[in-house]
């Protein structure tokens, strides 16, 4: 399973560390990661994978709730859906 995780919010210390820890806690591996700060806004995109099949509904709920606790928006999409959306 491969997926794309995006994170957007006001920049503050520890976002990458916190999101990376949550990714590991949920049994996902970070294959590639990119982050930048534009003015005062933090953006991050990570490609994650797992050898096991994952429940995207559960993962989405976990990341949304965790994002709220960090005051950022975290979204996860299947790589297949992400590819289909950008190949129209």
Notes on the structure:
Belongs to the UPF0237 family. This is UPF0237 protein H9965_00400. Residues 4-77 form the ACT domain. Homodimer. The protein is an alpha+beta fold and 88 residues long. The chain has one domain (2-87): ACT domain (Alpha-Beta Plaits). It has 3 helices and 4 strands. Strands 2-3-1-4 form a 4-stranded antiparallel sheet. Strand 2 and strand 3 (41-49) form a beta hairpin. Helix 1 (15-25) packs antiparallel against helix 2. The longest helix has 15 residues, at 56-70. It is globular and about 35 Å long. The relative contact order is 0.29.
Number-wise, the strands total 4
* Overall CATH architecture: 2-Layer Sandwich
Number of domains: 1
At the third CATH level, what is the topology name? Answer: Alpha-Beta Plaits
Shape: globular
How far apart the termini lie comes to: 22 Å
The number of distinct helices, counting runs of at least 4 residues, comes to 3
Beta-strand proportion: 35-45%
The CATH class turns out to be Alpha Beta
**Largest beta sheet: strand ordering:** 2-3-1-4
List the secondary-structure elements in sequence, H or E: EHEEHEH
Uncertain spans, ≥5 residues at pLDDT below 50?
none
* CATH superfamily grouping: ACT domain
Structural classification? alpha+beta
Q: What's the story with the biggest beta sheet?
A: 4 strands, antiparallel
Look at the structure and give the mean pLDDT.
Answer: 92
* Fraction in helix: 25-40%
Radius of gyration: 13 Å
Family: Belongs to the UPF0237 family.
Domain ACT: 4-77
Protein name: UPF0237 protein H9965_00400
Subunit structure: Homodimer.
